Amino acid sequence: MTTPRPFGRALCAMITPFAADGGPDLGAAARHAAGLVARGCEGLVLNGTTGESPTTSDAEKSALIRAVREAVGPGAPLVAGVGSADTRHTVELARAAERAGADGLLVVTPYYSRPPQAAVEAHFRTVADATGLPLMLYDIPGRTGTRIEVETVLRLADHPRVVAVKDCAYDLLGSAKVIGRTSLAYYSGCEELNLPLYAVGGAGFVSTVANVAPEPLRAVLDAFDAGDTARAAELNRLVLPLTELMMAAGLPGAVTAKALLRAGPVRAPLQSAGREAADGLLRAYEELTARTGADG
């Protein structure tokens, strides 16, 4: 079976750089996006969690898409986060993203209100019907409070514009079941599961860590595709210390990625990383690049 990859394999969940005055730094965003593509990212996800979408305005989201589209040209797919707790607002964001030049939409489960599964399904179908763009469902119950249950995903797979899932549900069994029964492209949204999900037929990853280390993450997939599973496992092991510090040490990924990139402030309620945390991140990054030969 050929694994579908509608947006490529190696996608970066890109930060949104801000200037010292707190506004978006679109020039920095354009440079960062172009650099990520040059370093092996096959697609970019904008205005997601790592892009601090809860604290950027609708106009800022559209401006970011346009700036990045101009910077990377037509070759790299741009997937725009358009999720919100409000179906009507999500539809508005989806249409704005389409006008701004996005190639696909990342749509998170509506949060806080904790809708039942029939309402979750109706939400996604409404958004899918609102534009001509393909959808990537974003299943991250740890943040939204609501899982996209396996049976719901299976039903949504019959919609012609529901083509992919960003998987942060930590349910490898459920994911493998959907992969085996549908043509949906499953992208790991949790770096520690990039290789396991890929091994059972996943499409690749949507990664925050790729903001700073795209080459080692892509190298894991390249080694696996070449049939060198031992090399893939070793490369995956080398990435884990940085992954743990960036994604599982108490600070959000937007904070840790910006600390390493020196990409300006984060927006409240987030706060920038302290000196001790930033130093620890830098040591882990330098060790990874020394051992893999990758350095941006």
UniProtKB/TrEMBL annotation:
It catalyses: L-aspartate 4-semialdehyde + pyruvate = (2S,4S)-4-hydroxy-2,3,4,5-tetrahydrodipicolinate + H2O + H(+). Keywords: Amino-acid biosynthesis, Cytoplasm, Diaminopimelate biosynthesis, Lyase, Lysine biosynthesis, Schiff base. Pathway: Amino-acid biosynthesis; L-lysine biosynthesis via DAP pathway; (S)-tetrahydrodipicolinate from L-aspartate: step 3/4. NCBIfam families: dapA (TIGR00674). Belongs to the DapA family. Transmembrane segments: none annotated. Pyruvate binds at residues 50, 206. Its EC number is 4.3.3.7. InterPro entries: Aldolase_TIM (IPR013785), DapA (IPR005263), DapA-like (IPR002220), Schiff_base-form_aldolases_AS (IPR020625), Schiff_base-form_aldolases_CS (IPR020624). This is 4-hydroxy-tetrahydrodipicolinate synthase. GO terms for cellular component: cytosol. GO terms for biological process: diaminopimelate biosynthetic process; lysine biosynthetic process via diaminopimelate.
